[in-house]
Structure formats: C-alpha cells, structure tokens
Amino acid sequence: MSNGYILIGKEKLHYRKVGSGQRILMEFHGFANDATIFTAIEQYLHNEYTILSFDLPHHGNSKWGITPLTKKDLVFLVDHVKEEYGVEKISLLGYSLGGRICFTIVELMPVSIDRVTLLATDGLEVNAYYSFFTRTYFGKKIFRHMLEKPTLYFKLLNWLKKKDLVDARRHKFVMQSLSSAENRELLLHVWLGLSDLIPAPEKLKAAISQYNIPVSIFMGAHDKIMPPALGKRFKAGLDSVQLYILDKGHRIFDNENARQIANSLL
Questions:
Q1: If you write DSSP's letter for every residue of 177-216 in order, what string do you get?
Q2: CATH topology assigned to domain 2-126+198-263
Q3: Where are the domains of the chain?
Q4: Beta-strand (E) ranges in 29-102?
Q5: What is the pLDDT of residues 185-225, one digit of tens each?
Q6: Is the pLDDT confidence value at 62 over 80?
C-alpha cells in the first residue's frame, strides 16, 4: 500500500493505492468515512486491480479548503488516472455518498467506464430536500442558520416527523448531524461542497443503457437511509443493472459478504 495526492486546482485530494493488477478501480467512501473503509473488499481484488481509494473533500487526509468539487473536477480526476496508468476504462466502487460520486462520473463519462459496484448508494433519485438546501438561495440561508442555531430547529424537526412531513430516516440523519459542532461543520462543508455532483436520473439511465455498463447495486433490506425500494425503481428497464438486497442495514458490507461484493467487479 502507498499514499498520494492529486492536485485539483489549489486543493489536494488524498488517495490510498493498493494492489498491482492491470485494471484500475477508483473507490469513493460515504459521509464521515474515509479511504480505508473498503479494506475488507480490497483483499479479494488486489491481484486483478490497482485500486485508488480516495478521501473525499473534508474527509481523511485530503487537504481541502472551501472550493467546491465540481463535475469538471471529476472529469479531470478520471482523465488524470486514465493517463497516469495508460488505460481506456476504469471501474468504480462507491458507498452511500460515494455512490452518488460514481453515478455522476458514469453520467459524464460513460465511454470511460468498465463496470460499477455501488453499496447502499445515494443518487438513485433526486433528493428534493438536499437540492433545496444546497442549490437555492433561500435554502442555503436556512441551512446555514440551522447549523448556527440548531436548538431552534429541534422542536420543528420533531413536529414535522410527528406529522409525517419528514420521514424517520431523514429525521434521524438531521438530528445526528446537528448534535455537535464538529458534525455541523462537516455537514456544512460536504453538503455545499459536493452539491454540484447530483446526477440526472434519466440521463444516467440512458448512459448505462446506451453503453451497456454492468452495474451491481447492493442494498440493505433494513436500510432506513437508502431503502431498497429506491434500487428497485432505478433498475426498472435496465438490463445491465443487477440489484442485490442483503440482510443488512445501511452499513451493508463486512467480512461476511466482502467476497460476494468483490466478485461483482471480477
């Protein structure tokens, strides 16, 4: 294993490099994780792949300020990796938020994708709440005020949940994210900093279908954050998409099923 950085503008994206295979796998972790999260899966892949596992901005060892990570930056990142290793195609592995990053790459650069494996993935549909809070003027104002004065919103969130205006999974996520200053700062930077990376579902599906990209999606039967119904709706009409529903929650992978997940990339 080795470590390195890729310079994107003035920012430095950190990655772990594992394996010695001829194929290239780019990995992207979830919110509040880091590049080490896939180690259980990597042990089955390192002979076939050279694996680059990235720390997303504001995570792990990446040195990142306030600059957003944009779609243009993702294209640059993939092109840089392809040129560095002399390959025409790369494979992708993403968990939760990292799955949304992978989906964005697929939408932007389908001709560059070999195969994709996604775990409890975000990006299966457009999240109206996220789009409002990160991509509209008033939404951003409310979002920042919520992070500065979180106690003012606790009663409101509880009331919205009681009235079924906010579901239990979003209520839990928001309450946890507002629970400490450290969590609020991370949420602020990540939500706003990655808000450009929202794939358009119809364009994404068209790209997968046109280029017949093999996509394996693993979802947890008990996942309240990314319920498997999202995967079922996304898969409809896409012959190259395989959906696996495991007896897990949102943290869907561990030593027990790592080999099964790895096999989807082999």
A1: HTSSHHHHHHHHHHHHHTTT----HHHHHHHHHHTT--EE
A2: Rossmann fold (3.40.50)
A3: 2-126+198-263, 128-193
A4: 49-54, 90-95
A5: 999 999 999 999 999 989 999 999 999 999 999 999 999 88
A6: yes
Whether the pLDDT of residue 162 is over 90: the answer is no
For 246, the token pair is 């495991």
Q: Which residues of 61-90 are buried (b: 16+ CB within 10 A; e: fewer)?
A: ebebeeeebbbebbeebbeebbeeeebeeb
Per-residue pLDDT at 164:
85
3-state secondary structure of 73: helix
The 3-state DSSP class for residue 138 equals: helix
Q: How many CB atoms lie within 10 A of CB 171?
A: 16
Q: Under the phi-then-psi rule, with left for phi > 0, alpha for psi from -120 to 50, and beta for the rest, what region is 44?
A: alpha
Average pLDDT for 154-177: 80
**Strand pairing class (49-54; 11-18):** antiparallel
How far is Cα 107 from Cα 204, in angstroms, rounded to an integer?
5
Q: Which residue has the tokens 């920012």?
A: 11
- Using CA atoms of 97, 99, 102, 106 in order, give the dihedral in degrees to the nearest 10: -130
Decide if 109 contacts 232 (C-beta within 8 A): no
C-alpha torsion 79→106→25→98, nearest 10 = 110
- Tell me, rounded to whole angstroms, the distance of Cα 46 from its chain centroid: 22
Q: What is the pTM of this model?
A: 0.92
